[in-house]
Design a protein that fits this description.
Blueprint lengths: L3 E7 L7 H10 L6 E5 L18 H12 L2 E5 L9 H10 L13 E7 L6 H13 L11 E3 L13 H21 L3
Parallel strand pairs: 1-2, 1-3, 3-4, 4-5
This protein binds ligand FNR.
The site of ligand FNR has 14 residues, from α1.
Length: 184
């Protein structure tokens, strides 16, 4: 059975982040031949085009992780109706120098959970715009705009009963779609 590595990008640094919990819980819904590896993005410097010729080690690492991955998974909160700056900073870093983007052609899933009823819909839409420009195809359906409710996770940190069927369906679709994009 082919093995697939997915690079995961979480847009929150908060200790008790719902989005980080969601990243862990979603990995548990995937088949055994899919490995989810969260990329560290909180040690990246602020992007500065002057550094393109001599990128920080953290940037080199980030680009290597993306290139190695068969697919991408972005799980992000919504900050002021858009994606968090930390996540955009990581995207900018790995897109440069011009013509040497690490993102090109990698299939991506987009998920997010927020305390607001909008469920990160606007952040996801902004993120999809950025990814489209970078030639990153994104899974269109099902969309998942998740509001943080008490029953979102169970006591073990897995997706709670109320959301499990929907989120399992999302993961099944994502897995099929990544396979479709990946020539092995
Ligand atoms: C927020 N939050 C928020 N929620 C939302 O639904 N739409 C929004 O535009 C915003 N904007 C926003 C800006 C900033 C700077 C912060 C800190 C928060 C609330 C957000 O949903 C909440 O803090 C989540 O808990 C963030 O996700 P994590 O950190 O739990 O993963």
């Amino acid at each position: 059975m082919s093995q697939y590595t997915i690079a995961v990008f979480v847009g929150s640094l908060r200790r008790d982040s719902f989005n980080r919990k969601l990243a862990h819980a979603m990995a548990n819904l995937a088949p055994a031949n899919f490995t989810f590896e969260q990329s560290q993005i909180d040690d990246l410097p602020l992007y500065n085009q002057d550094d393109d010729d001599l990128p920080a080690l953290a940037v080199v690492r980030l680009k290597a992780e993306i290139k190695k991955a068969h697919g991408l998974l972005f799980i992000t909160p919504e900050y002021n109706r858009s994606l968090p700056g930390m996540l955009k900073n990581a995207i900018d870093h790995a897109s440069r120098p011009y013509g040497q983007s690490a993102w090109t052609g990698k299939p991506a899933g987009v998920l997010g959970v927020s305390v607001g009823a909008v469920g990160t819909a606007l952040a996801q839409q902004h993120l999809r715009n950025v990814l489209a420009y970078l030639d990153v195809p994104t899974l269109g359906q099902p969309e998942a705009f998740i509001q943080a409710k008490d029953d979102l996770f169970d006591a073990s940190g897995n997706i709670g009963e109320s959301h499990r069927s929907f989120m399992q369906g999302w993961m099944n679709q994502y897995v099929d779609w990544v396979k479709h994009y990946t020539v092995k």
